[in-house]
Amino acid sequence: MEIYLYQGLIGLTYSMYLWLLAAGLTIAFGVLGILNFSHGALFMLGAYLAFTFYGMVGLNFWVAVLLSAASVAVVGAFLERFFFRQIYHLDLPFQLLLTFGFVLVIDDIVKMIWGGMFMIPPIPPFLTGSVPLFGRPFPIYNLFILLVGVLVALGLWLLFDKTWWGRKVRAAAWNREMGATLGLNVPRLYMVVFMFAAALAALGGALSIPMRPVTPGLGTAMIIQAFIVTVIGGLGNLRGAFVGAIIVGMLTVYSTMLFPLFELFLPYVVMAAVLLWRPHGLLGGR
Question: Residue 158: how many CA atoms within 13 Å on its side-chain side?
Answer without folding.
Answer: 6
